């Protein structure tokens, strides 16, 4: 059974604060990630000392179209995205994008200089201990040399790879490596490149992203499915069945657990999985998830689903997910009335609950007196409701629901922007925990609404945000950080999922 998520404290603290890293730990992660991944660096790196952790698979000889060890003279192309330097030597990473292979070179040096390639299957976080693929030295009488070509990916084992070029002067111990990079294989657009980068965090052992992520893994899988739908790239659809088969009996079974919002995220992921595969087992699991949530609807504060099986707290995200999931199920089940009635009841209660404030923004939930608790207006609380109202409008034909959604979207696109770019309230520099996934859920919902409205009023803002993230928040591996307007930060699958959701929505 895969690892279960860490226990979470009870409210009234909002989710992102309950799971937020301490400032010191976040700073440590940011520092190490910047050094290893070069998120805010240029394409040129300098001498670094980063210890490798053991990952033998990255060492093994790989055969895709060609096997490791192919002569670079046979390459049909030579793209050079990143370089490094040490003691006047130039170290360059070369790509043959057509064959998805790479080689390294060292120049402007002396005989005996050494050059090699490191290969990683988790985005540069680990690589083979002592791998030094293609390790070679500059021959006598030469000032430079190159390795043989190595495969970047492992197609036979669904391994999404990254490589870097490393080298050293023959008479010194210091080593320099380029930033990690990869070929343009499965990366012909901004969104497919981001999807490929996200798949570097897919743990083939657990079938989850980041090893043991739970609700965040549901969002990452949803982003991958949405990318397959919008881009037409089916390469990573294997993650759907892998996630399902490895986790169907985890937690309480059927992707249910004691956090009802977690169950809602998974239910929606399986709706998306059903849409792209047509496999009824995914739809049946989504139905089981909705039924599980329904069991925790009660009369406290007049209705709504509780956040946790043992809690009385009524929060926005759980109930928005309940609205969205039930409306989506109705739209896919012929003759249904039960899921439609649940969705209608949810919206009737939610809109009068007090969680929507006078600025048309949605706070985190209700206090013990059943009044708005005034907690921050997290982005995902503004976004999931948009998708839910869009689905409910499709189900009922009620256009006033789209009018309401538009009012909410108009408010959030303005109130949550800083210098014209979306920013999470209290946005930090870390990409771990819950908060980094929030913006993705927001733009996904905004994108659903935008696609349904005939004038597509949010296309411009989605494009602006996507352009900013692409220009200011991306490294050579097409990994994204937490700040779409730019700035120091780490990189991990939570931020990557949000960026992919943005690029999917922007088109």
UniProtKB/TrEMBL annotation:
Keyword ATP-binding appears in the UniProt entry: no
Keyword annotations of the record: Hydrolase, Signal
A Pfam family assignment: Glyco_hydro_76
Signal peptide: 1-47
GO biological process, one term: carbohydrate metabolic process
GO terms, molecular function: hydrolase activity
PANTHER family: ENDO MANNANASE, GH76 FAMILY (EUROFUNG) (PTHR47791:SF1), MEIOTICALLY UP-REGULATED GENE 191 PROTEIN (PTHR47791)
Protein name as it appears in the record: Glycosyl hydrolase family 76
Organism expressing this protein natively: Actinacidiphila guanduensis
């Amino acid at each position: 059974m895969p690892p279960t998520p860490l226990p979470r404290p009870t409210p009234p603290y909002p989710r992102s604060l309950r799971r937020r890293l301490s400032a010191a730990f976040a700073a440590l992660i940011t520092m190490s990630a910047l050094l290893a991944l070069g998120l805010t660096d240029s394409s040129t790196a300098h001498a670094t000392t980063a210890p490798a952790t053991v990952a033998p698979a990255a060492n093994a000889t790989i055969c895709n179209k060609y096997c490791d060890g192919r002569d670079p003279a046979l390459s049909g192309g030579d793209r050079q995205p990143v370089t490094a330097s040490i003691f006047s030597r130039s170290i360059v990473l070369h790509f043959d994008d057509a064959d998805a292979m790479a080689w390294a070179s060292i120049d402007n040096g002396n005989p005996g200089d050494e050059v090699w390639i490191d290969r990683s299957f988790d985005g540069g976080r680990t690589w083979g201990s002592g791998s030094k693929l293609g390790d070679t030295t500059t021959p006598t009488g030469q000032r430079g040399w190159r390795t043989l070509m190595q495969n970047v990916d492992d197609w036979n084992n669904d391994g999404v790879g990254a490589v870097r070029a490393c080298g050293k002067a023959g008479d010194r111990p210091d080593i320099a490596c380029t930033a990690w990079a990869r070929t343009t294989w499965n990366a012909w657009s901004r969104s497919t490149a981001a999807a490929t980068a996200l798949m570097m965090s897919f743990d083939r052992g657990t079938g989850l992203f980041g090893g043991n992520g739970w609700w965040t893994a549901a969002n990452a899988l949803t982003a991958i499915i949405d990318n397959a739908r919008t881009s037409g790239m089916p390469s990573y659809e294997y993650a759907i069945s892998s996630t399902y088969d490895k986790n169907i009996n985890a937690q309480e079974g059927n992707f249910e657990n004691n956090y009802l919002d977690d169950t809602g995220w998974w239910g929606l992921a399986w709706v998306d999985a059903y849409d792209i595969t047509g496999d009824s087992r995914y739809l049946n699991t989504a139905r089981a998830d909705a039924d599980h949530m329904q069991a925790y609807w009660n009369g406290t504060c007049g209705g709504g689903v509780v956040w946790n099986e043992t809690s009385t707290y009524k929060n926005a995200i759980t109930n928005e997910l309940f609205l969205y999931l039930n409306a989506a199920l109705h739209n896919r089940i012929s003759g249904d009335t039960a899921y439609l009635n649940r969705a209608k009841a949810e919206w009737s209660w939610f809109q009068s609950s007090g969680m929507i404030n006078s600025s048309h923004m949605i706070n985190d939930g209700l206090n013990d007196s059943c009044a708005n608790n005034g907690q921050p207006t997290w982005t995902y609380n503004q976004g999931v409701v948009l998708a839910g109202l869009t689905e409910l409008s499709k189900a009922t034909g009620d256009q006033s629901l789209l009018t309401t959604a538009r009012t909410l979207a108009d408010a959030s696109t303005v109130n949550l922007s800083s210098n014209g770019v979306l920013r999470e309230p209290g946005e930090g520099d870390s990409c771990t925990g819950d908060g980094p996934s929030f913006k993705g859920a927001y733009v996904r919902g905004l994108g659903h609404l935008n696609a349904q409205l005939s004038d597509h009023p949010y296309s411009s803002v989605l494009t602006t945000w996507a352009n900013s993230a692409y220009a200011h928040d991306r490294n050579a591996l097409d990994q994204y950080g937490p700040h779409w307007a730019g700035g120091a930060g780490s990189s991990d699958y939570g931020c990557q999922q949000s960026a992919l959701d943005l690029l999917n929505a922007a088109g």
